[in-house]
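Hey, quick one: can you model this chain's 3D structure?
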Amino acid sequence: MSDGYLLQNLSIRIGERQIVDDISFSLAPGEIVALAGASGAGKSMSAMTPFGLSAGKASGSAMFDGTELVGLSESELSKVRAEKVGFVFQQPLTALTPHRTVRQHLSEAAMQAGGASPDKAAMVAMLEAVGLTRPDERLAQYPHRLSGGERQRVLIAAALGTIRAISSPMNR
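Sure thing. Here's the predicted structure for all 172 residues.
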């Protein structure tokens, strides 16, 4: 599988503690996969660690669009994160910077992905695409003025401003 995301025999440790042991799954472009498990079972660690977004140390294989992530340096992982993947974190209030407007969040996400800051019409279209009502008004709002669902939609719009979106697993 050269496109998509493929985990094979992925294990994750933090210090001497085994967090995830031998997980395997594939995710093709456009496909949705749910990781189910109890709180603390390692769902978020399985999604974040291969991309260098946790304190965990991965072993096994994590291929993203043909690139092996396990073993990449932080600078190489940073390039993958900036150019190829967008993240939608499970806690939108803590994932959004409180002193930045929705417009600033969308602009920053696009520029971190290597693009130019989108104009207002493009940002409105991004928010419309994720079903956010009154998108032109939302651009000037701060995260605390939005509901939890609206914050999540802003994160999804920001992630979709990059090439692909992967959603962090949600504890249920």
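One thing worth noting: The chain has two domains: 5-80, 92-167.
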